[in-house]
Specification:
The chain has 405 residues and is α+β, with helices and mostly antiparallel strands. It folds into 3 domains: 214 residues, no CATH class; 114 residues, no CATH class; 59 residues, Arc Repressor Mutant, subunit A (Orthogonal Bundle). It contains 14 helices and 14 strands.
Length: 405
């Protein structure tokens, strides 16, 4: 259980020391895997190694000027690099793999996983070979991939480019290429080195890391439930569809919110619909994370309970939800203050139904002649008359009876 740091030696403008603190022979982890869903099935992507190293600077390239600028603000910041086995066959698999990795690092609170801000980055290696042959082809490394969409587009382009080169009788050069999102193409950046070109040697200033079994077991016990396992549990325990479970477990905070809400209001599918619809819509509009939600899980559960108990209708609930988000007040207080309690008095609703029927004789005749879809028109008029407060179930029952009479 030993891990060592090494110096990776190379010259490039983004590395002012001329070497990078990294790991080589004894990285922090080896021989792992991540399972991804592809076309309804599971694909296992191997992980060669995970090693720790310090970050280099960030090069900025100006396409209109023959200069590059170097930002050294992130230089020396620690990071982990995950090296994958060449198991990915399609660009779309890369997107699924990266999303699963990002979900894991977010669950473990390693980083926020934002590609756009550089806290989660991807360099992609591409090689092609004739179908049925064993040796891997010469690879190129792609950089400047700052979104999942750009990763997939860059891979599609590079695969096509390499095919054209080989079909024309040329050879693939092992190099690093830069993805240009404006031109939707890659361009040669520099030659790609092999491991021996970096002249790795043990860092003389850093002691080896020796990790005891007791600490490892303690960490294992304290690990949170990871997204894939949590998704399966959501489908089994809450009987949610795969889509719902996938979305709800894509973020640890969102999954926690759902479970907190379901504890208070134990109807998982109804909670799921509200969380995926109204809540995520609100957060997207306000550009807020789930942790900053203006409506707590408990307050949302109490709102849903009011709908379930027949105190308010589903339509009114959406209005109440918006008011909760704006004012921070609980649902019950808003309902009472604004007089939004659902009308479930059969006599009162019967008066409204008769009024609407008498006002629309042509629609009544159409309904009686077999055009039953027009029932929705009457329901809409009644809801409009009662400002959305009529009990929809009761309205339908009374309406059908009166139209029959």
């Amino acid at each position: 259980r030993e891990s060592r740091f090494a110096r990776k030696n190379y010259f490039y403008p983004d590395l002012p020391k001329g070497y990078q603190i990294s790991q080589y022979e004894l990285p922090i982890a080896r021989h792992g895997f991540v399972d991804i869903e592809v076309n309804g099935g599971l694909r296992r992507i191997g992980i060669t190694r995970i090693h720790m190293e310090e970050d280099a600077g960030k090069l900025g390239h100006d396409p209109d000027r023959p200069v590059s600028m170097v930002d050294f603000n992130r230089t020396g910041v620690p990071l982990i690099e995950i090296v994958s086995e060449p198991d990915i066959r399609q660009p779309e698999e890369t997107g699924a793999y990266l999303r699963q990795l990002r979900s894991i690092v977010r669950y473990l609170e390693i980083c926020d996983g934002n590609l756009e801000e550089g806290s989660f980055r991807c360099d992609a290696n591409v090689s092609i070979r004739p179908r049925g042959t064993q040796p891997l082809g010469t690879r190129t490394e792609l950089k400047n991939l700052n979104s999942f969409k750009h990763v997939e587009k860059a891979l599609h382009y590079e695969i096509s480019r390499q095919k054209e080169v080989l079909l024309d009788g040329g050879k693939i050069v092992q190099e690093t290429r830069l993805w240009d999102p404006d031109k939707n193409k890659t361009a040669s950046m520099r030659g790609k080195e092999e491991a021996h070109d970096y002249r790795y040697f043990p860092d003389p200033d850093l002691l080896p890391l020796v990790i005891d079994e007791e600490w490892i077991e303690k960490v294992k016990k304290n690990l949170p439930e990871l997204p894939a396992a949590r998704k399966k549990r959501f489908m089994d325990q809450y009987e949610l569809p795969s889509y719902d479970a996938e979305l709800l477990t894509s973020d640890r905070g969102l999954a926690d919110y759902f479970e907190d809400c379901t504890t208070e209001f134990p109807q998982p599918k109804k909670v799921s619909n509200w969380v995926m619809g109204s809540l995520l819509g609100l957060l997207n509009t306000q550009e807020k994370a789930i942790e900053d939600s203006p409506v707590s899980a408990v307050d949302l559960a109490r709102l849903l309970a009011l709908v379930e108990e027949g105190v308010i209708s589903g339509k009114i609930a959406k209005t109440v939800f918006d008011e909760m988000a704006r004012t921070g007040k609980p649902a019950k207080q808003i309902v009472e203050k604004k007089g939004l309690v659902q009308i479930s008095d059969a006599d009162a609703l019967e008066d409204v139904v008769l009024k609407i029927i008498s006002s629309h004789p042509r629609e009544v005749e159409a309904y009686k002649s077999g055009k039953t879809k027009i029932l929705g028109f009457f329901v809409g008029q009644i809801m409009k008359e009662t400002r959305g407060q009529a009990n929809p179930k009761l309205v339908n029952e009374i309406l059908k009876q009166k139209l029959k009479d």
